């Protein structure tokens, strides 16, 4: 039917232009076959204005406009990556009627317990590694001394900073505030809070309000029997961080502890006997590998003389705070620390004690026994978050703009107000990038 069509031609505005010619070959056995002659586009882009279509002697010329694509320039965008989030929520305040969550989900703990039961027979035959065999981890002994000295340095410097940085504590609850005046937020949960409309009554704070004293029983033998309820008053209690350092290798003459020179011989799941050390030579008393610092009495504390000394003490305090927390976290990976899921009781050792002195919610149903679980760093060293004051010399915090203010640990807030540089890891909870409205009308416009 195509052969009966009449030839048709369209006017060509540029007869010298090159095009694409399509020809029909009738000698092909497979039907109509089309062959394409590709022109040189690079040499004729400026003069190509038409397309020539040739079909069985007929020419069809169509005007065509070919545009050269615009040049694409690759712009490399500069991306700044920051591991610290821009803003982070404050740590959750758990109710006294609520049990602390397990650091490891209960499903994974049960699965790990089943695996231990399967490998129990093989584990009894294989030698255990330190500190489960009663020996010390030698690589962690310097870390234990650093943590102990960092704690002493932190306490001594905080006592000095309290002379120049005002810290307020509520007389009815445990909340504190670092700044010239106490904050106006209605968050008091102490006795008679309804009468005072949840307002705080601010007084001067002490070192115990900034560093919460967390104590634990001192163990003469960390692998010995658990402390019974009848011996709860005869065993001394010391700071939990100090007890962790002692078990990790710190030698304190006043607090004796058992040091084994041979691994124990385990004969059961909870039964073992000490190896015979009579063949070993007598132990020679060694000097402390690192001198231990001592706390300065409150009567001998001297305030910083000038601003430069205050900034220097603040920087040293921040370094001691970070060194103590990082070192303690490293020690807790090897030396187990237990915490009660209902109260702040801490026990440094493989298993918790049996003292029935838990007074948390519904302790009568548990007969005063603790619900022991694995502890985290904040259980051993609570950070004690306080409201961050953007400008110490500026106006005080406003009750209506509470959602715009950030929080920081009390130690960090004291050091910042004393002139120390702000650490990167605390910027997310301090909300430094949040613009604080000047008036309440401006705050209502925030979406």
In percent, how helical is the residue content?
10-25%
Assembly annotation:
single chain
User: Strand order across the biggest sheet?
Assistant: 6-5-7
Kindly report the average pLDDT value: 81
Low-confidence stretches: 1-60, 71-82
Please indicate the percent range of residues in DSSP E strands (runs of 2 or more).
5-15%
Protein architecture, described:
By secondary structure, this protein is an alpha+beta fold. It is built from eleven helices and 16 strands. Strand 12 (337-340) and strand 13 form a beta hairpin. Helix 4 (141-161) runs antiparallel to helix 7. The model is unreliable at 1-60 and 71-82 (pLDDT under 50).
């Amino acid at each position: 039917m195509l052969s009966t069509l009449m030839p048709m031609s369209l006017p060509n505005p540029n007869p010298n232009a090159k095009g694409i010619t399509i020809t029909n070959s009738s000698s092909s056995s497979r039907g109509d076959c089309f062959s394409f002659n590709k022109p040189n586009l690079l040499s004729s882009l400026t003069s190509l204005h038409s397309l020539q279509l040739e079909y069985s002697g007929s020419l069809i010329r169509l005007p065509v406009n070919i545009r050269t694509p615009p040049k694409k320039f690759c712009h490399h965008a500069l991306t700044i990556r920051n591991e610290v989030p821009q803003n982070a929520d404050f740590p959750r305040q758990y109710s006294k009627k609520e049990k602390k969550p397990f650091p490891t989900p209960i499903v994974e703990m049960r699965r790990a317990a089943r695996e231990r039961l399967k490998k129990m027979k093989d584990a009894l035959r294989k030698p255990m590694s330190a500190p489960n065999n009663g020996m010390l981890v030698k690589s962690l002994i310097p870390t234990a001394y650093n943590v102990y000295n960092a704690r002493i340095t932190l306490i001594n410097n905080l006592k000095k900073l309290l002379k120049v940085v005002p810290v307020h504590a509520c007389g009815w609850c445990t909340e504190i505030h670092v700044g010239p005046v106490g904050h106006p937020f209605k968050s008091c949960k102490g006795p008679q809070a309804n009468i005072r409309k949840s307002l705080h009554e601010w007084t001067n704070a002490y070192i115990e309000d900034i560093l919460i004293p967390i104590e634990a029983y001192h163990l003469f033998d960390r692998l010995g029997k658990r402390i019974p309820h009848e011996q709860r008053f005869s065993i001394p209690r010391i700071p939990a961080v100090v007890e962790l350092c002692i078990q990790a290798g710190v030698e304190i003459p006043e607090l004796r502890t058992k040091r084994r020179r041979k691994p124990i011989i385990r004969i059961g799941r909870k039964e073992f006997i000490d190896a015979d050390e009579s063949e070993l030579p007598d132990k020679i008393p060694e000097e402390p590998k690192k001198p231990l610092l001592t706390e300065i009495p409150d009567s001998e504390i001297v305030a910083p003389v000038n601003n430069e000394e205050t900034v220097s003490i603040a920087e040293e305090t921040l370094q001691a705070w970070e060194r103590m927390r990082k070192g303690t976290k490293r020690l807790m990976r090897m030396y187990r620390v237990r915490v009660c899921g209902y109260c702040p009781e801490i026990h440094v050792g493989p298993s918790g004690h049996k003292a029935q002195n838990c007074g948390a919610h519904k302790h009568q149903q548990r007969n005063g026994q603790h619900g022991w679980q694995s502890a985290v760093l904040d259980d051993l060293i609570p950070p004690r978050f306080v409201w961050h004051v953007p400008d110490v010399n500026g106006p005080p915090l406003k009750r209506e703009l509470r959602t715009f203010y950030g929080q920081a640990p009390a130690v960090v807030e004291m050091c910042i107000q004393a002139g120390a540089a702000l650490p990167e890891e605390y910027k997310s909870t301090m909300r430094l990038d949040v613009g604080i409205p000047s008036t309440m009308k401006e705050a209502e416009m925030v979406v």
